[in-house]
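Read as amino acids, tokens; as here:

___
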Amino acid sequence: MATKKTASTNHKATANKSAAAKTTKTTVTTAPAAATGALAAHIQQSLRSVALWRALGAELVGTFLLAGVVIAGQGQPIFVLFALAGIVMILGGISGAYVNPAITIGALVTRRIGWLRAIGYIIAQSLGAALAYVVLSGFINGADAVNAQAQAYGQAAPALYAAVDITKLAGKEWFVFFAELTGAAVLGLAYAYATRVVKDRVTSALTAGFGIFIALMIAVSAASYVGATAIINPAVAIALHAYSWASVWPFAIYAIAPVVGAVLGFVVYDLLRDKTAE
């Protein structure tokens, strides 16, 4: 009798273990599918947000304006200062007016914005800068050609401002790399303050404007010693034809260096700020 009860008990225990194993296996199997479904639902819901599309439009327009000013003003820091300050005052309330993929990634790493918004911003910023080049190229192409008499007096045909070809600076690339990195770190520090603490639009605009001014003054001065161009904006670098497939250096200098510098600036600010004082 005891043997029958023991056998029955063992049989039930085995059945329970089998059922538990099946349940665990089913849970493990369905967990990735559930996570994927939740992610897809999150993306769909975000893409339906009117506020997100407005922000993307603001980033496109803002970067278009910034790249246009950089080209028209030939990258002079004082022009970029007022341009960025104006863009932040006009569009900052809609998207934050990051207008720079490096700043966008810095904000993403320090959890100021989400990854989906960051990807959208980078795409919009790149399109805005490219559009600025296309529009200004159209005006240049419509200009009258320089005649032979004018050429004899040294007058050149109108051309858009462009970055110096990095591939011609053999052995000096690291100087430009660190110039971009340092400038982006200064700009990241300014944006970290403007996006985390400042609530007043004018103060935020002036912080970003003077941040880019200081950043460009440092980077332009350092880069000019080796005959290079400082940009501190991977999107604007598209408008200035800074990238070249002939070497990896243009991408390292004008895309990777600003991103590393901006992230460093954001992180340093967050480490230094006194949270209890806010």
